Amino acid sequence: MKRILRTMLFFFLLVLFPWGSGAGTSEVIEPVGNGVINWTKGIILAKGSGAPPKEARNIAQARLLTERAALTEARRNLLEVLKGVRVDASTVVENFMVKSDQIRLQAEGFIQGSAEVRALRKYLSDGAIEVTVAVDLAGDFISLMMQAATEAKRGGDKPPASVPEPKPEKKVIPPPPPSPAPPEAKPAPPAPPLPAPEPSKPAPATPPDRKAEPTPPPPVPVALPEKTAEPGAATAAVAEKPLPKPSELPPFTGLVLDARGLGMKPALIVRILDEAGGEIYRGQYVPQEKAAMNGLALFSRDLTAAQTNPRVGKNPLTLKGSRLDPVNPADVILAPESARRLAPFAQKGTFLEECRVMMVLD
């Protein structure tokens, strides 16, 4: 039911804001070839046109063949748009399609399931037809990309297979040629007898007026003071502070993350980190099914538009991003105070689990 309502809303928004020209400056729209990626709605669109064939027998057949040609071209253009969708900061969908035939076939099947926006169909004066097709990225497609990204990361983390060192070849050394027998040695004369050893002299006795010096006792080991840990040193024994219950948290309904001025580009998979690199969102508490169905985040160019977007509810928490992760610039790092405010919501039963996140870009 939720999927049906989302699809109905999807096409309703397309009729209101067909191609981005009427969407205003708040939407993040990225042109790709003969189509666009609307990162604010999480959809991709493409146009295609078809001309009536000369060999058509009648007007009805000409109209049908023209529509079919227009839809074929539009879906071909939509596939090119899909290839340019960023999965993360450094990977686009085409990278996965090239590496995996299975992903390529699933992506092509995903495009074949796209729908025409009939309200945007145009009939031209020469009999040609221009159509617009669109598809929602959330759902099966995001699930496919998240799975592919996870498998690629696991493959990258595996150490390369160790190559056995070549064993040195064993060289067979031929035996040396037999040497001529040595001449018979004459017996040596007997050695003269050794002189008898002199008897050992007794040690001189201690004079009666001089006492023997006592043997000093062994040194007593001195116990050294134990080294104490430096102040501020992290130890594994320190337990993490338990999170408060969701019912005890402030009644925020979503998150608006202001990433303006950071140079961030929208992507399907985004994360929010603290200064130490700890993952606040998306953590293990967000099921992949919810992340795929809702999308991890949507994007806007206007702070007020993001704060009033239905995705984040009526009382969103607004935070400012500090900087981007240098390893993956699709991940936003929060300052300590902002991370402290958001961290308690990194659990089940909160707006983060529902992926109610909007990001504001330049």
Blueprint of the fold:
Blueprint: H1 2-16, E1 29-32, E2 35-38, E3 43-50, H2 59-83, H3 93-99, H4 101-112, E4 115-116, E5 122-123, E6 129-136, H5 140-157, E7 254-258, E8 271-273, E9 279-281, H6 288-294, E10 298-300, H7 303-307, E11 316-324, E12 331-334, H8 336-342, E13 357-360
Parallel strand pairs: 7-11, 7-13, 8-12, 10-13
Antiparallel strand pairs: 1-2, 2-3, 3-6, 4-6, 5-6, 8-9, 11-12
Helix pairs in contact: 2-4, 3-4, 5-6
Would you summarize the structure shown here?
This protein is an alpha/beta fold and 362 residues long.
The amount of helix comes to 25-40%
Q: Helix and strand string, N-terminal first?
A: HEEEHHHEEEHEEEHEHEEHE
Q: What integer value in Å does the Rg equal?
A: 40 Å
The span between the termini is 35 Å
Number of strands: 13
- Contiguous low-pLDDT stretches (5 residues minimum) are 1-9, 157-172, 224-239
Strand order of the largest sheet: 9-8-12-11-7-13-10
Arithmetic mean pLDDT:
81
Given helix and strand content, the structural type is alpha/beta
What about the largest sheet? 7 strands, mixed
Taken as a percent bin, the fraction of beta residues is: 15-25%
The structural domain count equals 2
Query: Which geometry do the CA atoms define?
Result: elongated
Treating each run of at least 4 consecutive H or I residues as one helix, how many helices? 8
Which key terms come to mind for this protein?
single chain; 362 residues; alpha/beta; 2 domains; six-stranded antiparallel beta sheet; 13 strands; 16% strand; disordered N terminus
